[in-house]
Amino acid sequence: MRSIGAIAHGSQIELRNRRIEEWVLTAIVQEASVLLAARRTLLRSRFPLSPPLPPPRPPCHRPAPDVKSEQALIIGRVVARALSKDKRTAILEAAAHWVAADGLAARSAKIAQAASVADGTVFKYFPTKDALLNALYVWLKQDLVDAVMAAFQARDDRPGRWEAVWSAYVDWGVAHADKRRALKQLRVSETITAESRNATLPAMTTMAGALFEGAGADPAHATSPDFTSAVFEALAEMTIDRIEADRGAHPAHRRRGFEAFWRAIGGA
Predict the structure, then answer these.
(1) Boundaries of each HTH tetR-type domain copy (predicted)?
(2) pTM beyond cutoff 0.70
(3) Pick among 3.90.1150.10, 3.40.50.300, 1.10.8.60, 1.10.10.60: CATH of 70-127
């Protein structure tokens, strides 16, 4: 049987061994902590952390697009590309025919049918009836002016120019009966704007300046082109009416009409 002293000595040895184990374990933990800290420092030096992301930008509140305006712009471009010069001319020719026949009340459906287009196509080219009539007036007047100017430029003597202009005017009216009748109705219509009436004014002014220049007519009449123009149109229209009733004597009636006009303005 062990003595009390031996037991006490054994307990001391066991306690000392436990303390040694605790010290060794503590030392291992501390060493591991040091190694772990060193490893973290090494990793940070090799792989630095990315900078923090900037805060998100506030949303940009843009005004909503004007859908109707964009659609109108697109439609306008498509319509502009779709317009045809030939169709426009066909509509104007048909309008001249029906205005000559039915007056300014001519229906757009008849005009469209004569032009071989849909009724809605007429208003694609001319938004309103008034716009169509104004365009028709300018187109007819320009056609007449072109014919007269070509004859005017072919002569260089003043009496010859007057007769050339007269003959071109009369011949145009005889050759284009519908255009002439339509133009006569449009001239007295309040629908025709001042802008439309003045569309051919530059060319007419140039021609009138040359016709009234120099000798060969009464100076009193030469200074009043409005009077001369009124006499010219009145006698020319009477001459055309006479030719339409007696086409076989076209040249003779045209010549007699000019002689009457020339005497009326005091020509030599």
Answers:
(1) 85-144
(2) no
(3) 1.10.10.60
